[in-house]
Amino acid sequence: MEAPPEPRVVHSDDSILVIDKPAGLVVHPAPSHKGPTLVDWLGERAGGGPSGRPGIVHRLDKDTSGLMVVARTEEAHRELSRQIKAREVERRYLALVEGRLGARTGTIDAPLGRDRRRRTRRAVRGAGEREARTHFEVVERLPADTVVQATLETGRTHQIRVHFEAIGHPVAGDREYGGSGRHGLERQFLHAERLALTHPVSGERLEWTSELPADLAAALRLARKPSSDQ
Questions:
Q1: Mean pLDDT for each consecutive 10-residue tract of the chain (230 residues)?
Q2: Range of 88's domain?
Q3: What's the number of domains the chain is made of?
Q4: In a domain, 1, yes or no
Q5: Cα–Cα distance between 179 and 187 in angstroms, integer?
Q6: Is residue 51 in some structural domain?
Q7: Segment 115-124 long-range contacts (CB within 8 Å, at least 24 positions apart)
Q8: Residue 218's domain is classified under what CATH number?
Q9: What is the pTM of this model?
Q10: Could you tell me if residue 32 is inside a domain?
Q11: Which residues are identified as catalytic?
């Protein structure tokens, strides 16, 4: 099995680590996954929280790329977890969704739970549902797709992917939730492009951005072409 690429360190100090996670890297160990994880890579770099997930305060899906913050101390873990629960951490994603969205901005407010037929999936009004809200803004309308910025108000598993499937505009490349493999995509076109938070010790407000990875940038170039050119 080919090892996934390692994350890129964007920021590091005594309390936190901000990384740019590549697609293909699983965040923490699970019975369904065999192979290296982000937790393995973190090793002694992270701290605080459960022993099996040291430093982890939020996660990205395996094939979602982009920015994550990791705690390095118990104090930082407690404060970052509090900020996420209080919705004080801004997490903005760039997504390519299929079809042309009519509204320029909007909020998808639909509770999410476990799919009653396939337990690895999430679904609107699934088992054990919890509130879930995704805000979006159209960045660019393309011939057959729409580029959107999506901001999480809540952070449920697969939230953006399920929400856009629910409104009939699945994330391009996301075969799990109705997307197709158009534009050469081998994964969902979903990238955590901006992260903003208050430093758990200094109290300074910090923000970071991440450019699209090469595979998504290439897919976007194809998506911009008229259908007859593809």
A1: 80 97 83 71 86 88 96 96 95 97 94 82 83 96 97 92 95 92 94 98 98 97 78
A2: 8-224
A3: 1
A4: no
A5: 10
A6: yes
A7: 120/32, 121/158, 121/176, 121/177, 122/156, 122/157, 122/158, 122/159, 122/162, 123/162, 124/162, 124/163, 124/166
A8: 3.30.2350.10
A9: 0.91
A10: yes
A11: 61
